[in-house]
Amino acid sequence: MTAMSYRPADIVSPYLLFLGDIEDSVSAKMARAVVIWRPEKAVGQLRMTERTVSVGIEDVSIEDAVARGARTLVIGVANSGGKLPAHWRDVICQAISHGMDIASGMHQRLTAIEGVPELAREHGVTLHDIRHNHPPLEVGTGEPRSGTRVLTVGTDCSLGKMFSSLALQRGLEQAGLNAHFRATGQCGVLIAGEGVAIDAVIADFISGAVEWLSPACDDQQWDIIEGQGSLFHPAYAGVSLGLLHGAQPDYLVMCHELGRPHMRHLPNRPMPEMAACIEANLAAARVTNPAVQLAGFSINTSQVDEATARRELEALSQRFGVPATDPVRFGIAPLVAGLTGAKQ
Questions:
Q1: Phi-psi region of 97 (alpha: psi -120 to 50; beta: other; left: phi over 0)
Q2: Rounded to 5 degrees, what are φ and ψ at 292?
Q3: Cα–Cα distances in Å, from 164 out to 150, 291, 308?
Q4: How are strands ordered across the β-sheet holding 101-104?
Q5: CATH number for the 148-343 domain, one of 3.40.50.300, 3.40.50.150, 3.40.1350.10, 3.30.450.40?
Q6: Residue 161, Cβ neighbours under 10 Å: how many?
Q7: Chain centroid offset of residue 322 CA
Q8: What's the predicted TM-score (pTM) here?
Q9: 226 DSSP 8-state letter
Q10: What is the pLDDT of residues 290-339, one digit of tens each?
């Protein structure tokens, strides 16, 4: 398999981050990812109401954003089902009329919205459907390939797999190692500028897409592959399984949120027990790499105080014999040390 050469169409910055009228902060992860990882690319946020979630940057109108040099309106939302609310159309059309490109990570294509492609052609702007932008793919083979790969997995969806992957890539680089972030979701693709939104790939080609995304390479190269969903989530387990097989991971990093009461969007579905979740992910990963190991935990502890967070992380580490950290609160260094130590 040859090295990756495909790149999605360039999305021109600076961006105006459009949050619509969402009130669920987790759904703002597209915009929040830009603010955390590429803050220099955002001129501001655009909210339709005062109750709309904020990602902590200045509210800016389309006119003011254009005056500040904004080139692309980025739909900063990734909601369940990936459908653009019909009442957001006017804002999208307004941005197009002001000469702005539009970038969306939704399942619903911008080109399928009535009147939008025609207006885009009229004003000479580009519509970027990030989720649907990938090359022709092959089915997976499971053939062993060289390189060192880390896959982030989770007890649920939307709890920090992308953040953990980016933090790991940065931490390994700072340790002097050759590390690459391999994006598998629309937010990650926007941040990295390349990758494949796996949840928009036909099921038969998911593992093959990940094999293409992280091909054979030098054993000294670390590929940090962004995980998606959870084997225990009824809606998204299929994508998670395809990633586990295609990634052929040497190491898994388990992501979790302390205090989450139930699976996302499923109030009658309790969170899985940690040991069962770990074993299920290891068992699935062994299909293509029998030597896979659990490397550690990346835990979102934002819902508890610091003392409780430290106690819970220590308990996880003692129970499973691997490092546990909150990369936001306590840094990624324990996981970087755990990974490099495990490889020696």
A1: alpha
A2: -60, 145
A3: 11, 22, 21
A4: 42-47, 15-20, 72-75, 101-104, 127-129
A5: 3.40.50.300
A6: 29
A7: 24
A8: 0.90
A9: P
A10: 999 999 999 999 999 999 999 999 999 999 999 999 999 999 999 999 99
